[in-house]
Amino acid sequence: MKQRVLGRTGIRVSEIGMGCEGLVDKPYEEVKAFVDLMEQAGVNCIDLYSPEPGFRTNLGLALQGRREKFVLQAHLCTIWKDGQYKRTRDISEVREGFEDQLARLGTGTVEIGMVHYVDSMSDWEEVRGGSVMRYALALRDAGTLKSIGLSSHNPEVALAAVRSGLINVLMFSVNPCYDLQPASEDVEELWAEKSYEKPLLNMDPQRQALYEECQRLGVGITVMKAFGGGDLLSEYSPAGKALTLYQCLHYALTRPGVASVMSGARTLDELRACISYEDASEGEKDYAAALASLPKISWEGHCMYCGHCAPCPKGIDVAAVTKFLHLSESQGEVPETVREHYAVLAHSAAECIHCGMCETRCPFHVPVRENMKRAQEIFGK
């Protein structure tokens, strides 16, 4: 397993890292099996966004006797409340959640303290000048954190954070489709139709600037969403054609500033597949030809999240609901973050009156009413 230096932190991380999706809601024996495989293969970077108590406890037990072999990317501002994940900026909750994390992991220090999920400039201003950043800086000064990071899907926010000098690590969503999209405070706008009207190698200038600025300033990037929540590997690919795992990994790892890609592996075989990237040929990794051919593919029946279906008489954000539906269906379950996104929508799929006006406006003839029915079944409202 190749390692890279994580920007100016000096920390060496494996090219392939491990997201925590496959470790949540698993018994200790399965968590330990993941950690055993990671140790054997040299996968040393683990992202810990989920505050689920059982996951934290099991991982802490699995790391006993080998904690020094791993780089932990722990998140500030995620807590477990009423049996589910919650993002918070309330400093008392932030502090309690982080202290719980340390206790359950059985460690007094973590390598990266990641301020969780900052996607709007107003949120960034609150974090930067408020109690959350003061707390993170105090933890760093005390040696509890070796470095401070921030996670975001918005290049405008990420650039501001990188240029502030307050963070050394950026966790950012990187894949060939997201990189086409302009900055937005709504992550679901990453899949707008207009971005697919031109050759897909035309990267959004702000995203390119972000990667280059990270490289220039020594802010290491750890990658999330390299596979678009699984969409890019399946029939849900916005191109109407699946890319390969190797192509997605190689694309992310060839962006300036990138040090490690967090695999969202949910099984040992999925993790082994990601690890096998290290032995893949250059031909297997090559993504250029695949990306260049994508605009030639028909979009018939596939939601591009363009919003042409609006306005809905009930105010439903059809594009957002459809995207959350596809994210959940492609993974076979509703991820915590997707459930949270859906929960804060002003209007849910259950409010659909099946008038069909959206379908008359859709340029891709998407069966919107059927999608709303499925969304209601999956999300419960």
Task: Write out key terms for the chains shown.
381 residues; alpha/beta; TIM Barrel; 2 domains; eight-stranded parallel sheet; two-stranded antiparallel ribbon; 15 helices; 39% helix; globular
Compact description:
With 381 residues, the chain is an alpha/beta fold. 39% of the residues lie in helices and 15% in strands. It has helices at 28-41, 53-63, 91-105, 121-129, 131-141, 155-164, 205-217, 245-253, 268-275, 282-285, 288-293, 318-331, 336-343, 357-361, 368-379; strands at 3-5, 12-14, 16-18, 45-48, 71-76, 78-81, 84-87, 110-115, 145-152, 169-173, 220-224, 258-263.
Structural commentary:
The protein has 381 residues and is an alpha/beta fold. The protein has two domains: 3-294, TIM Barrel, CATH 3.20.20; 318-379. The protein has helices at 28-41, 53-63, 91-105, 121-129, 131-141, 155-164, 205-217, 245-253, 268-275, 282-285, 288-293, 318-331, 336-343, 357-361, 368-379, and strands at residues 3-5, 12-14, 16-18, 45-48, 71-76, 78-81, 84-87, 110-115, 145-152, 169-173, 220-224, 258-263. It has an eight-stranded parallel sheet with strand order 3-12-11-10-9-8-5-4. It has a two-stranded antiparallel ribbon with strand order 1-2. A two-stranded antiparallel ribbon has the order 6-7. The chain is globular, with a radius of gyration of 20 Å. The termini are far apart. The mean pLDDT is 88.
